[in-house]
Amino acid sequence: MSELATIGAYSVFIGSYIVFALGKFPGMKIDRPGAAIIGAVLMFTMGAVRVNDALHFIHFGTVVLLFSMMLLVAYLHLAGFFDWITELVVTRLKPHHLLPTVIFLSGLLSAFFVNDIICLVMVPFVLKATRRMGVKPVPYLLAAATASNIGSTATITGNPQNILIGSFSGIHYRDFLWHLGPVALVGLFLDWLVLWWLHFRAGFHDVRTEIAAEPLNIEHAALVKAGLVAALVLIGFLAGFPPPLVAAVGAAIMLVTRTRDPHLVYEEVDWGLLVFFIGLFLIVGGAENAGLTERLLGFGQRLNLQRLSVFTIVTAILSNLVSNVPAVMLLKSLVSRFSNPHVLWLTLAMASTLAGNLTITGSVANIIVVEGARKEAEITFSDYFRIGLPVTVLTLTVGWLWLSWIQ
After folding, report:
1. Is 108 exposed, middle or buried (0-12, 13-18, 19+ CB in 10 A)?
2. Mapping DSSP to helix (H, G, I), strand (E, B) and coil, where does residue 31 land?
3. Which H/E stretch holds residue 396?
4. Ordered DSSP codes for 194-242
5. What's the whole-model pTM score?
6. DSSP state of 355
7. Of 109, 137, 207, 388, whose Cβ has the fewest other Cβ atoms within 10 Å?
8. What confidence tens digit (pLDDT) does each residue in 4-25 have?
């Protein structure tokens, strides 16, 4: 590449990451997916990415796995799976049982399905449950957001950045779960402790108010099919089959239907996130062609990033500056060249995910919860940060200690 093309590639890379950090281009309606598209086009224009090499930079396994998991959750949602769970919870539990239920339900579902999608269905669940029980929704909404991030740490399919790491690292699903599952489990208990301490330690009064049950929209045949396919997909993951292939087969089976309008399913897919991934692959690929990897290696050696404590802190800070998916895309080139890449891949997954609990804008899952509940419950930056800071510090410390011990 010429010197001018190299400068242009770095300018596009830096400009794109600034927009990723801010969430949108100042003064314009350009969001993160839009910035990814513009950045990718400019990389082609600068010559940093050639048309014939473009497919080399796009990791289709990541895109296929993410898309397939979206389809699977969409079918579960449309079949009434989450409505059924909501009714099960609100009719059988007392208010003081609701906090651990929200935490562990959010964490468990997010561990095996993409947490951003789970948050979309957890918001109406929490609002309906708190409405029926007559309790304030904010603590439980905070629980759903923080627990979904913590639970998603456990597996490759827990969140978009883990999907990326699973694809690039080659770590098997069970191996990932074995190493990070304990971190997620302990983290959920710590989340429960922090939320209880800050919101409920003064006592909890049963303030249940009887509100008429809302009619359930459950399609029993579709629910059985969706549940069976989802279970088989999870078994396939644990059995060691390639996650993109397993998820794609499951999604294809779900698409074979005589009653479900496929357009309803497609409406539930986050197309913007998929576009963001493809554009980001091309932006980082162009920057790597311009010498980004070598510069990062020099930077990493100076900071001694191979130390788990340093790498954890750097990943957590970067994830809050530019968001976790761009942070992972930036650091992936370093990890593969370290002397112990296996544990550093796991550290990258752990730190980039748990760091998302620090602020509202730390992860997409948080934003989904806050925006989804805005009409009924307002969560301020200070409301979230009051919970997010101790939860983030505690869970990152546990994750770092655990991975340091088992490496």
Report:
1. middle
2. strand
3. helix 381-406
4. HHHHHHTTT---------PPPPP---HHHHHHHHHHHHHHHHHHHHT--
5. 0.85
6. G
7. 207
8. 778 888 888 888 888 877 777 7
